[in-house]
Amino acid sequence: MTNLTIGLPVFNAMPFLKESLGSLLSQTDTDFTILAIDDGSIDSGLEYLLSVRDPRLKVITQAHRGLTFTLNRMLQEADTPWLMRHDADDIALPDRVAATKRFIHRFPHAGMFYSEARYYQNGRTIGTFRSTRATPDELRRITESGYLIAICHPTVTLNVQKTIALGGYRFDLHIEDIDLWWRMALKHDIQYVPELTTYFRHNTASVSTGNLEYQSINTLYVQYLLLSHLRGWPALSNERVRSHLARNVDRSRLACREALRRANICYSQKQYLSSCRQLGKAVIAHPVYFAHRLFYEMRRSELVFNGEDPSTFLSQRDILWPDTDETGIQSEPAMTEYAKSVECV
Length: 345
Description:
The chain folds into two domains: 4-210, Spore Coat Polysaccharide Biosynthesis Protein SpsA, Chain A (Alpha-Beta Complex), CATH 3.90.550; 215-325, no CATH class. The chain contains 16 helices and eleven strands. It has helices at residues 16-25, 45-51, 67-77, 96-106, 136-144, 160-165, 176-187, 207-210, 212-231, 238-246, 251-268, 272-285, 287-296, 310-314, 317-320, 336-340, and strands at residues 4-10, 33-39, 57-62, 82-85, 91-92, 112-121, 124-128, 157-159, 190-201, 304-305, 343-344. Helix 2 links the parallel strand 2 and strand 3 (57-62). It is globular, with a radius of gyration of 20 Å.
């Protein structure tokens, strides 16, 4: 009996869906179930899914409810202990299921697994998704220090029951994954699989490309929630603190990230001159971040994570945590030498 379900959320995923599903159906380890949930698509994606004759594929349809709702439904519908995430425009390398199962066998009590991904478009890959390559204890220490770990969502395999017990996915803010990672890291072991398993599609129509600034502000909100949890302070709603958090976004770093992303896309489309122009914009926008991102491709041992210096939030305590006072306030999270010894870029 299979112990693995591959969760495939589908929303207007054509024409990439065929290649994506094909990469799953051609895995070297064939013992799994694919749970595809069509979230009210208006393209031909559902028609294609229903045309596939493979007993491993189960298709569920629903009115459009958004990604967070769909991911939580997958957790509820999965009838196996483990749920492997896969997006409908990404590519699973042939041994992804086999590699994941090997690690599940080695670490059966883990809460989650994640692995390496490379950016992909038009049959070409360029650039590695920037992930926190670390042990479960290191991931926990980074989180306890008030920073956010970096993990490529479509490489993740979740323990279904442990994820549900944590509250599953929250928010329709395009950061539902980052919010889950810190809760998982504090409660259960997250195991890094040091293998390339996924090609992560990069294109100008993707959610992450079109919402980079929006996501950056929302990521700060997730970090704010983490710091609130660590200190036992009541957190305000995103609406109440959003304008304050937006002031902490590093605009030059954001511009560099956007230019790098577009450089990758242009390169994969063989628009080499445009790619060089975008690289030039990236260097001008934030040369330090550009250098860090370049060195990440060369230094696999470099430990990276996300977020701003927690002291930035704590200096605004009267705004971000107005309902706290000086009585019984906990000590600051242990940022100290461990957090200073790794890169936050």
